[in-house]
Amino acid sequence: MATAAPFSPDAIPGRPRRVLRHRLIVRVTHWTNAIAIIVLLMTGLNIFGAHPRLYWGNAGSVDQVERQWLRVGASGTMAAPQGWLDVGDRRFDTTGVLGASVGPNNRWNIVAFPHWATLPSMRDLATARTWHFFFAWVLILNGLAWLGHGVLSGRLFRDIVPSARQLAPAHLWHDIVEHAKLNFPKGEAALSYEVLQRIAYAGVTLVLIPTVILTGLAMSPGMDAAWPFLDQLWGGRQSARSVHFLAMAAIAGFLALHLVLVLLSGPIRQNGAMITGRLTI
Q1: Whole-angstrom Cα distance, residue 166 to residue 95?
Q2: Strands (E), the chain
Q3: 2-11, 68-77, 95-104, 191-200: least confidently modelled range
Q4: Which residues contact 50 (CB under 8 A, 6 or more apart)?
Q5: Looking at 28-42, 76-90, 216-230, which range is the least confident one?
């Protein structure tokens, strides 16, 4: 005589269910990636402060203004400094944020970025470079683990890379409108990424992160000696530094937008799923 299957409250139609959304390796690589990128961003800003100028080409110095396209600095007096950002021929007043900011001792600091945005919080190029290089390897190894799992499990093309159907103009426009209205997926639809999410995740993981890694290697004298094509791939070492900075800024923008959307769509639910792996739908 057959026995009935055990009763499960989750099986009741209409009742919220907790389903597996993120496997362990996805959760581990996600949080490792988040920590590595934040440390790399903050140490990178400290390193940038040692020479807060960007150039195109192979060489750059304070005298080569024709190659320079971005500069952070300050003018005025120590009692009343004015911070500024030069982009091309345009100057923007950035007092209090860039160039001149108030330090933890409530005094003006003439530094490219404020103390709360850098690691270490004071100007310390040697320590910042040591941390930066260490977490760069964390990012590389973690990224390889994530990519390997994504390819072998099929998750990369199933869940991350947008499909041709999703990239159709009508589908893309629909997702843009839904995001603008803050209508986030519910129920079963929340178990897969929509096209804008896929474009963002694929852009960061498959384009921006490889770009910061390759440009970072191009700026290394040791790597340049071993593989001289690396810096020429970007048009010179200073161009590699500029692209490195722009890719970093794009990643920082993605992180900010990502955090805002998590807050708007339910931070406890979303973070809980990325910690426990299970999402309530």
Answers
A1: 44
A2: 18-20, 53-55, 68-76, 81-87, 90-93, 101-102, 108-109, 278-280
A3: 2-11
A4: 123, 125
A5: 216-230
Q: In the structure encoding, which two tokens stand for residue 76, read together? A: 């005025």
Q: Give me the residue label for tokens 């907790």.
A: 18
What is the CATH code for 18-49+122-280? Answer: 1.20.950.20
How far are the Cα atoms of 51, 98, 123, 124 from residue 86, in angstroms, in the given order?
14, 11, 22, 24
* CA dist., res. 98 & res. 135, Å (int): 25
Higher pLDDT, residue 12 or 195: 195
Q: Which of 152, 250, 234 is nearest to 199 (CA)?
A: 250
Residue 2 confidence (pLDDT) above 80: no
Task: Describe the strand order of the beta sheet including 53-55 as a list of residue ranges.
Answer: 53-55, 68-76, 81-87, 90-93
Q: How far apart are CA 218 and CA 205, in angstroms?
A: 19
User: Closest Cα to residue 58, out of 222, 246, 242, 235?
Assistant: 235
**In which residue are the tokens 């897969």 written?**
192
Sign, Cα dihedral of 246, 247, 253, 255: negative
